[in-house]
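Batch job 17 of 40 flagged for manual review because the log was empty.
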Amino acid sequence: MNKNRPNILWTGGATYFFSPFLYKSNNFSESWKFISLANITWDDAYLSIALHSADSNIAYVGMLMGVVLKTDDGGNTWLPILVPSERRAFVGLALSRD
């Protein structure tokens, strides 16, 4: 949840077969929109989501295989900023103001 926009919520994870899912709500969780990552080819679990404190359109998603994705348009498009690694997995992400 973005503290400046508490109506915007994100959730994600993986199904039993590790198929990833990501959802976003703009109305305090009254309804949810599936966020497609069609341009991302890694079939991976979303383990962490970090939201920018000032800009509700910026979000980061950390994935089990060490991939970090970023959106700056509220989840419409995503770019990998870290690619898979056997030595890295994300179970938590945090953003710093620095």
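Reviewer: the log was empty due to a logging misconfiguration, but the result itself is present. DSSP finds no helices and seven strands in the chain. Unflagging and moving on to job 18.
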